[in-house]
Amino acid sequence: MPLAAGSDSTPPATSSPAAGSPAASATAVPTAAPLNVYAATLGGLAPQVADLPLRVYVPNEKSNSVSIVDPATYQVVGRIVVGASPEHVTPSYDLRSLYVNDTGLTEIDPRTATVRRTVKVAMPYNLYFTPDGTKAIVVAEELHRLDFYDARTWAFLKSVPIPWNGIDHLDFSADGAFLVASCEFSGRLVKVDTVALALVDSVAVGGFPVDVKLAPAGDVFFVTNQQRDGISVIDATTLRETGFVVTGKGAHGLAVSRDARSLFVTNRLAGTISVIDIASRTVTANWLVGGSPDMLTLSADGTELWTGNRFGDTILVVSVESGRVTHTIKVEERPHGLTFFPQPGRFSLGHNGVYR
Prior knowledge:
By secondary structure, the chain is an all-beta fold. 2% of the residues lie in helices and 45% in strands.
């Protein structure tokens, strides 16, 4: 029963300890550090790749090859023949292999830059790994589905049909319980449960949504939209668009800066790269780089952005400090999802190198 005001049973008033007093110090609750899902990328290279030479692997979609570039000299130092229409070079979850997404998955040994084998999967446009490392996800865009495999044995687990066209890029929630993927040609995003392996939600954003990246705090997803010329801000709980940031014509690829404070956006049709302050979600710079910049990868030290000139035969190296193109490197025809490898981080979530 509630106590009556002024009742003899009312507990005596107490005063809080003065700030800075020993009592205050003893009872203070420590403030938790803000979540940063990319915290592990602030350190050095993982032990299993610390002794590897740094290289940039460039899939040339129309040449059926991968060019290997030495980032110290900015010269092409190797070439690997692969299957038809290679789209991305994907680091494996354990960082011990690279997979070229072509007619199957051409597995490359990064120590020797040679082909180990071909993993037979159906029409892989893109490849990802769940944050717990148990499952590989082949994005079979032309088949309208996500195919789940055992990440260690490549045993097939299950297909998740996607009833909208253009499934191509995705990222995972902070706890890995679900993924959000873009359906580029349907203007939709889908949510897939990574435990139940089931489609559980979708939302229409319009235009042509492409790349997907989780914010460092895990609270929202950023999604480029090539037709709306900017990025959607998608609430990670409700999957609803809560904001939109205009960047430039043909917004396409995404990368998070090494300090996790900035988001880099390629505007493929404008020939620019936009820099977004993640905290304020405002554009702080637009760098004119020319060509058709596509997917992005950071250098291992975070000082450079590397991107393919999608409709040409070159790749661009851009200074993160100045925004200027420092090198233009000729490769082969239609360079796409290149990766700079190795990179800091405990493991790879796939695509062209997304690390946590």
